[in-house]
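Two quick folds needed for the group meeting slides. Do the first one here.
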Amino acid sequence: MSILITAFDNYDNWQENSSWIALREYLSEVGASKDIITRRYPVQLATMRERLEADLARGVSGVIHLGQRPRTSCVQLEAFCINAIGLTADRTAELEPLVEHAPAAYR
């Protein structure tokens, strides 16, 4: 059984992504394991998707995605995943689906 744990590069005004900091801290506590695969992905969707698909093709048993949410000071679990992406430079929404012909949200 193998688990893929992902984190992300920095973006916007942050010098480091808190997901990557959390993953590094986790690894420093538990050490390396042949059953745990860790990855640091870019925040650019196309590149991240390519790398994720390649990692999933290895046949992992499960995946845990870590992320950073601005203006949040505690760990939170997401109950829903919205199948949409897109913000313009002035932060107005221009949403398009992440996965074509898929549900608008996943619980």
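Then this one, please, same format:
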Amino acid sequence: NVATTDFVSSPQAMKVWVNGTQANLAVAVSTFAEYTGLLSDDLMNNSSRSSKTYDQLDILYTDNEVFKLSTHIGKLLQMTEFGLNTIAPNDADTRQQELFTLRYIRAYAYILAGENFVALPREARGEILKSEDLLAESLQELSLAETLAETAEQKALVALFKARALRGQGLWADAATQARQSLEYCSDYLLCVQYDALNGYNNSLHEYIAGGLFTIADQLSFEQDKFPMADYWNQPIAIAKSEEAYLILAEAAIRATDPADATIMAQDLAEARLQINGLSQLVSLRPAYVSLLSDVSTLTESATDRNSMLSLIYDLRQQVFFGEARRSNDLGIRLPLSEVEFNEHSNLPQAYTQAVIPAYLLSIRTEIDQHSDISRLLVESL
């Protein structure tokens, strides 16, 4: 019985709205982690409670999973827009922290969209944006968030998300600049979405892994420690952490220069090793959240050329971000525009209805979960 005008004028409207937006963010993150984990070489599905086709990269624009994920993004964009443009002007108690929260969630929604879809609309029945344009939208939102950031941690988050979006655009030098900036603001930043099973907001991915419905790929079996049985519904999922800054700096050192220049490459390899060492030191400080990595020092010394170092970096990204909806994007997989969205617009190219599956994955799509060297195949395809 509550109309929009009633809610907007109610006490603490912004506080309530931000809380609801954060709850929806948590659900979106868990769902993305679930489906993209199956699309990658992270997880195998042993049950009928999730997609049985995504293990084989069988993706259709008519899939309910595609619709569900795009709906999560659309909802976050609509909720943040309503909070920023309708509630904030009418709630005198709105705090800058609340505006910052809505702005970074909006930027993160665009990042999820740009990393995981070939295209999505900016708003209901709005203009369809390609993945690179969605990442550009996230950067615009982050510039607005930057004006609201009051603490070093908030500034670290903005810079880290900027680095992530710029990496997605292939702008390595700019991504490295933002990654360094983030570490200067806060060298051990960690932001997780929280769950509240008592009120119906569960971490479904954690439940499936802890309960054995999803099996972790053999080469990542040590990641099982990240999913304890105790209180599994309420376990958090990270959406931003300083580990990413080190990984971006390591990758940028290799990819931002000409691979044919042997002199520069030697310097770049040394820089990448330095950044990976920083990563391993940070990870060792919080084993409760990030599973222990392999013997990094030995691995970095054995990475003596561009491809072997990049393969190591992508292996480390898989380990560090396990269960956080990152691997399928790294592999180059993109979901199509959903049938619902496609039919809402006229004259869209049919290419929007097709998932992007890189050629190097096509020959192993039915055995992706068992393949132990996908990072190498990925790097050779770059």
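Slide caption for protein two: The CA atoms of residues 116 and 334 lie 5 Å apart.
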